[in-house]
Design a protein that fits this description.
168 residues; nine-stranded mixed β-sheet; 33% strand; alpha+beta
């Protein structure tokens, strides 16, 4: 559902993320979307579905399907209707479920699953951001060499399961 943005969280307050890619978590080979803070040392792991993982990976690898995927269609629809996608924002985490929004024409927000939002952002070549509270709640710190802070990661793993982060 689309709604007008209240402006309660100015764009400057959001934190830009880089899409690292999709990794597969053992032992179940569950796909995990990895997002990293552009100007910092935190990463956000988001457990996602296999179809969304394939869509994100295909786009990152430059694979062009014979026919448009759903995420390609979304980008085409936005454009064909005379609008532009400005950015994607991970807005919150509630009981292990991530929430995201597409920002269209600078004022209209559309709720989306983070995996779909990221797949669309890749295709539209727009940035991905997170609200500061998302990084504070689920961000995992990396050290200066880009390695995970082992103690923080162990603490994180002790309290979550892949089901906690399904973004449906």
């Amino acid at each position: 559902m689309a709604e007008e943005n209240s402006g309660a969280n100015p764009a400057g307050a959001d934190i830009e993320l880089r899409i690292v890619g999709v990794r597969f978590e053992e032992p179940d080979y569950a796909p995990v979307l990895i997002l990293r803070e552009v100007a910092g040392n935190r990463v956000i792991p988001v457990w996602i579905g296999a179809a969304e993982a394939a869509s994100i990976s295909m786009q990152q690898q430059g694979v062009v399907p014979d026919r448009p995927l759903s995420h390609d269609l979304h980008v085409e629809l936005i454009s064909a209707l005379g609008h532009s996608l400005d950015r994607v924002v991970l807005t919150r985490v509630d009981r292990g479920t991530f929430y995201a929004e597409l920002l269209v024409d600078g004022t209209t927000t559309i709720s989306a699953r983070p995996s779909d939002a990221v797949a669309i952002a890749l295709r539209a070549a727009v940035p991905v951001f997170a609200r500061p509270g998302v990084l504070e709640e689920v961000g995992i710190n990396l050290d200066a060499e880009g390695e995970v802070d082992v103690e923080a990661f162990k603490e994180f793993l002790d309290h979550v399961s892949p089901e906690d982060f399904l973004d449906d």
